[in-house]
UniProtKB/TrEMBL annotation:
Name the record gives this protein: GGDEF domain-containing protein
Segments crossing the lipid bilayer: 50-67, 79-98, 105-124, 130-149, 156-173, 179-200
Stored InterPro entries: Diguanylate_Cyclase (IPR050469), GGDEF_dom (IPR000160), Nucleotide_cyclase (IPR029787), Rev_trsase/Diguanyl_cyclase (IPR043128)
CDD domains given in the database record: GGDEF (cd01949)
Species: Kineococcus gynurae
Stored Pfam families: GGDEF
PROSITE patterns: GGDEF (PS50887)
Keywords: Membrane, Transmembrane, Transmembrane helix
GGDEF domain location: 242-323
Amino acid sequence: MDGGTTQDDGATAATRWRPRPVPAALAPAESLTGAGARSPAPERAARTRVLAWLVIAAVVIGVTAALDPTTLRPGWWSLGYVLGLVVGAASAVALLTVGRSWPDTVLAAIVVLLMGVVVLSVLANQSRSGGMLDVVLLLPLAVYAAVHLARRVCRVVLAVLVVAVAVVMGAVADGALQWATLTLLPSVAFLGTVEVVLALRSSVEGAVTALHRQALTDPLTGLQNRRALQERVDGALGDVTTFTTVLTVDVDHFKSVNDALGHDAGDAVLRRLGAGLREGTRGDDVVIRMGGEEFLVLSSTPADDAGAYAETLRVRAAEWLRE
């Protein structure tokens, strides 16, 4: 249904509205960043792949050590160590095949499993004081958790890491004071490294969010732009719902405003119209500047009422442009 072009005597420019029913689902959300969305598929695949290769590296190192007859001492610790390597190998295969959809808690459990293997590598070593150096292998696991896992889950992993260090040092320390010292030094180093990584992660995520918002925002009016509309159509923002009406808006004779009064005056008209649309539309409507003097209003207004809604906005737009 098309609305006619109307020129208001007191307005510098008039608006033209064309309400249209929208059959497709579009994502409505105030956020332009999709902050509540889960990690994108490529990122989730990458973090799963990184963990899989960490597990594979740990298994290869562990098997190499187990084949050395001077490394492991007979007993239950060695049996537990070998079982840990078997479970780790199975985990690596699962990560590479079906692990892409696994949540943070499952990935954190695998990280904790690897920490357990590191602890067992010391307890099963014939020279536990020499095997104590294996504690260094906990660092890449801690960094992985800081980079790829949710912060709350990462904190849990770090707590397990401190416990793992304490267990390892308890097996080699001579007295409580030495145990406390040996536990504190690597724990502080690991925790400090992780905090630095988390701070860098927050900084990078903030910069990416700001750049994303900037890319989806029209700098003149502060409204969402054509790219934001495309992301909504693609379902990239927020939860998917259905808008029932689109109002296309443009300004009649806008070129004459620029020619007669200059581009600064034309920009002022667009800013005023954009601000009016933002303030004058319904709460769940989304206003988008498509480019030039063309705007779009995505609305949940029923199609039967779209014409009346468009006319109301047209009359108000004439008032905005007179101000």
